[in-house]
């Protein structure tokens, strides 16, 4: 009964959102827009795979529940930027979910489809295998990074119980970025021996500074092995990213909105950085160091 009530509540919520969401022109895409559309494509793919395997309960769970946390993050990102132009994007997302829902709850799906302003039947519309927007691997990596930083900040504040006056983030210097990608390639090739990886990094002039911080390899290897295989492959395909630029441009408004403080971002190699507790040296790729005062 509890499960049935849960599904009923989800359907009612979706139906209400269909009434509120209006079709508007989709604006030039921001990073969070590219991400949510990429996540939507993953959702459609997962639902299709479950249906192909006749795992219908699993497919329905994907449609109703798997997307919630991602959508909440997207809305949080948009709100922090004070955006007012996302109605068309939300309409596109909701339309795709309704089409996925149609085989499972045809009557309510048709009602939702009509509320979204469509004249034809949902059951006669194409399956949303693509949202007509290119899948963006970089946006997946970017939003994963931003979410992990916010999670880390929240965990620090939970433990220290301080009210932040200043938040500083330190990103890894360039050689660590190159070392990370080399370690990642080793992992994808099946090589996880720390000693072997260290030797290969020292032999490369671009990463020979690893001899100053051999623990970096073990920590980075653990970081990579703790992540889903799909995320690892995505990072390999994207290559090196400019963490300092991403964090400065995309996280500042979110930090201001959530904690009402300004965000400072330094590279570990920045000679002018504010680093009273020598935190910067602990920065790793996708694991920036954080100082909260």
Automatic annotation (TrEMBL):
The keyword Aminoacyl-tRNA synthetase applies. This is Putative tRNA synthetase (LARS, leuS). Residues 33-167 form the Methionyl/Valyl/Leucyl/Isoleucyl-tRNA synthetase anticodon-binding domain. Keywords: Aminoacyl-tRNA synthetase, ATP-binding, Ligase, Nucleotide-binding, Protein biosynthesis. Its EC number is 6.1.1.4. One of its GO terms (biological process) is leucyl-tRNA aminoacylation. The keyword ATP-binding applies. It holds the Pfam family Anticodon_1. Belongs to the class-I aminoacyl-tRNA synthetase family. It comes from uncultured marine thaumarchaeote KM3_130_G11. It is an enzyme of class 6 (ligase). GO terms for molecular function: ATP binding; leucine-tRNA ligase activity.
């Amino acid at each position: 009964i509890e499960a049935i009530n849960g599904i009923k509540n989800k359907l009612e919520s979706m139906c209400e959102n269909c009434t509120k969401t209006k079709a508007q022109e989709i604006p030039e895409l921001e990073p969070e827009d590219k991400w949510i559309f990429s996540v939507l494509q993953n959702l459609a793919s997962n639902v299709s795979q479950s249906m192909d395997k006749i795992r219908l309960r699993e497919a329905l769970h994907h449609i109703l529940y798997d997307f919630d946390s991602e959508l909440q993050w997207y809305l949080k990102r948009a709100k922090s930027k004070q955006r007012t132009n996302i109605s068309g994007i939300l309409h596109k997302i909701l339309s795709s979910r309704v089409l996925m829902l149609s085989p499972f709850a045809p009557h309510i799906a048709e009602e939702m489809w009509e509320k979204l302003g469509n004249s034809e039947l949902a059951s006669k519309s194409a399956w949303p295998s693509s949202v007509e927007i290119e899948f963006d691997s970089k946006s997946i990596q970017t939003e994963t990074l931003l979410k992990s930083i916010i999670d880390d900040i929240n965990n620090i504040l939970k433990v220290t119980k301080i009210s932040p006056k200043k938040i500083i983030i330190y990103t890894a210097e360039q050689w660590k970025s190159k070392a990370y990608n080399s370690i990642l390639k080793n992992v994808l090739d099946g090589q996880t021996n720390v000693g072997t990886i260290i030797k290969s990094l020292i032999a490369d002039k671009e990463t020979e500074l690893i001899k100053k911080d051999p623990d970096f390899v073990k920590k980075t290897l653990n970081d990579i092995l703790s992540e889903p295989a799909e995320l690892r492959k995505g990072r390999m395909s994207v290559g090196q990213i400019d963490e300092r630029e991403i964090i400065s441009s995309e996280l500042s408004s979110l930090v201001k909105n959530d904690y009402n403080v300004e965000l400072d971002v330094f590279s570990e190699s920045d000679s002018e950085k504010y680093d009273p507790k020598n935190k910067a040296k602990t920065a790793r790729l996708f694991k920036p160091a954080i100082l909260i005062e």
